[in-house]
User: Fold this.
Amino acid sequence: MTLAPPADPFDPMLGRPPSRSKRLVIVVRADPVICGHSGEARNLAEVARTRGYDDVRIVTWPIDALEASGLPLKPLDRVLPYSPGIEVERPAPVGDYKVPDGRHAAGIVGRLVELFTDGVPTVVLSLYLMPHAMLVQEALRVAHATGLPVDVETMAEAVGSDITNVVRSCLDEERFGAAAHVIATFLAHDHCLAVSAYTKELIVDAARAVDAVSGTSFAERCERQVRISYPAIDARAFTDLSADHAGRAERSPVVRRAVAARGLETGRYVLFLSRLTDAKGVHDLIDAYAASAIAETHRLVVAGTGPKADELRARAAATAVADRIDFFDDVGDEEKRSLMAGSGAYVLASKPRPEFVETFGIALVEKMLAGGGPVITTPTGGIPEAVGDTALVVPPADPVALTRALDRVAEMDEDELAERELAARAYALQFDRGQVFDALFATVGAPTSALADVG
Assistant:
């Protein structure tokens, strides 16, 4: 990773401004975490370098902390480098073993305080409220308490798990103070963002539940303050796989080489590529594939890591088509694009779970941009916003319907496959990172009260 030099310190005695004029700080679970929002952070950072932000920083967690967390991670040697001028900071923890928890959080807060008080005008974006938005608000409080100049504008983007895994679980356990903490912290930001219209509905519903038991007015404020900002995706990284953008991506020499290196044939495998969890519907996919006619002509590739990896391998081994199912746990960013483009179909049979609901579907859009066979998915959460009318949609937790969809793909001729590929790509281009960044940052500097009617 290429590191940018630190900004010049602000000297209040001399009144000397820093040489860097504008900074963007993104606080997120960054690479190597396997998560669409770590990619979103990268994409926003890359665009910021072309939009006048000469100091761009991603503040995240140390590698050892991520490894100890149990989060699914990419192979470290396959994480793509960032462009020059983007610095990834992983602040060291504060304190020793006598501080049982919060050491890494304290390290991030401390570093943010330093960035907020060095005289550089800063926009800070939190991806995930828990705990990143909380760390930003604490750092901002401390920064103001120092008496040093502070010129910071805050953005917080709520994702589905902020509500389903944090706020909802607090409500179920009658921990209303904790739920109120999350929502109040979110609303304290200058810009409150949701990754989809569905996510905003989740937020408002959760706020309404808190209001019902505590007498607060969070729901009305969420309705008014939260606006939608879809995840930013590097469209060109995927569309460039197709030589002329009008032909089938699977014919690209780059794609053919990558696919062949895995012992596969382009257009002749069904792909799942995401985290291996219950909510992603991989159990249903394995059952549906084993019962389908497509198993005779296409392999099934399950790419990713996660807590259900061993269970899914055992499930696949128990099927009659076990020798036609491959598991890859070492796919890097570049190979991911080629595997998507070379697939005969891409399946994300997501289903709502108490701990997680798919509130957008970044991997689906990436697949649509890359090309290859059609997407098969479910109308869960925000997925309809991600795919429009370009996918084959089946009910969640319905392996029989999923089998029928797989067999429908096997019946498609070359003309239909090409038509579907072009339609999917055309729809997905609206989520290109440049377009998303410009819409998001068009409101930077506007009074918070003026944003109520935006998006």
User: Anything to note?
Assistant: Residues 1-20, 447-455 have pLDDT under 50 and may be disordered. The first helix runs from residue 36 to 48.
